């Protein structure tokens, strides 16, 4: 079978992405052949493309999509042709019309969750789930700071944190994004002098946890927002990687905790993956979360999607349509 895929043959800006025709074999043992219906675009895709996270080249891009099972290989019992499935993680190559996937990386998409929501928000939804429920379990009465509150992860995580009973402070980079975030944050602040604003809101105490997917630009200020024994959860590098720092600074600022988690380490077993995805989909179906797919692009326009994402022109989640 012939299909279309996006590949890179060198690291660089968005111009290195090429639309190519490729062959797809029949599924082998433990594999599933998917006809993809929607593909998620994420910041990590830009890191893979640019070389911030170096790849063995040539390489596909993309870690998340939704599709329909067209065929299964020997030994696959969890899925059958016609099933709607999604994935978020594993080997790169989601930017494609058809794709072979290991069955143990797929999850069922339940009725009541659209293909667009599954493809565009599963990675973000599972990220929000592990951040709020596993990395630093959020409880009633806590005050938290979430950077980039109007972003794909931020929108879901801030909604979910409020459902868990937390007071949510969110940072945004523009008034347009502030209008979005106000619907699910208790306090909206800008990035300028944000640590001082957090201290003012909390009466000088600081917050229990800062969830920081921005990276270099917010690291120092995030530490200054934390209460004694608070935790900085650094889960992304939108502005570049966090600079090297002396561990003693954590003691000086209040016996702080610092962690750099990844989704893969929280979904490394089949049970963890299925349960994390199911918890997210359950929250969506119950109406606790209202994920937003903000924009979509044709597969051939993946470069434009990356440009808009890097320039922070996007809102909510971004899709490619095969």
UniProtKB/TrEMBL annotation:
Keywords recorded for this protein, A-Z: NADP, Oxidoreductase
TM ranges: none
E.C. designation(s): 1.6.5.5
A UniProt-annotated Pfam family: ADH_zinc_N
Domain of life assignment: Bacteria
Entries under PROSITE patterns matching the protein: QOR_ZETA_CRYSTAL
SMART domains reported for this sequence: PKS_ER
Name recorded for this polypeptide: NADPH2:quinone reductase
Natural source organism: Iodobacter fluviatilis
């Amino acid at each position: 079978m012939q299909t279309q895929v996006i590949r890179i043959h060198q690291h660089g800006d968005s111009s290195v992405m090429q639309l190519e025709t490729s062959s797809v074999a029949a599924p082998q043992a433990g594999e599933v052949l998917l006809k993809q219906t929607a593909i998620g675009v994420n910041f990590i895709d830009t890191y893979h493309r640019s070389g911030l996270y170096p790849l063995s080249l040539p390489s596909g891009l993309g870690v998340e999509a939704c599709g329909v099972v067209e065929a299964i290989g020997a030994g696959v019992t969890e899925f059958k042709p016609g099933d709607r499935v999604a994935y978020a993680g594993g080997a790169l190559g989601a930017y494609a019309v058809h794709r072979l996937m290991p069955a143990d990386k797929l999850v069922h998409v339940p009725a009541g969750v659209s293909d667009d929501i599954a493809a565009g928000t599963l990675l973000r939804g599972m990220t929000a789930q592990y951040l709020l429920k596993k990395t630093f379990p959020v409880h009633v009465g806590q005050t938290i700071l979430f950077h980039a509150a109007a972003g794909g992860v931020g929108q879901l995580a801030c909604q979910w944190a409020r459902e868990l009973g937390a007071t949510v402070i969110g940072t945004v980079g523009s008034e347009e994004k502030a209008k979005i975030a106000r619907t699910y944050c208790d306090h909206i602040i800008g990035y300028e002098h944000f640590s001082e604003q957090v201290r003012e809101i909390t009466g000088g105490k600081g917050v229990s946890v800062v969830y920081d997917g921005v990276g270099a630009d917010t690291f120092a200020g995030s530490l200054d927002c934390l209460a004694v024994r608070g935790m900085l959860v650094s889960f992304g590098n939108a502005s570049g990687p966090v600079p090297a720092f002396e561990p003693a600074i954590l003691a000086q600022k209040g016996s702080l905790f610092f962690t750099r988690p990844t989704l893969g380490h929280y979904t490394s077993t089949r049970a963890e993956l299925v349960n994390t995805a199911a918890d997210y989909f359950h929250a969506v179906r119950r109406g606790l979360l209202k994920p937003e797919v903000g924009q979509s692009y044709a597969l051939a326009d993946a470069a434009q999607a990356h440009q808009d994402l890097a320039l922070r022109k996007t809102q909510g989640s971004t899709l490619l349509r095969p």
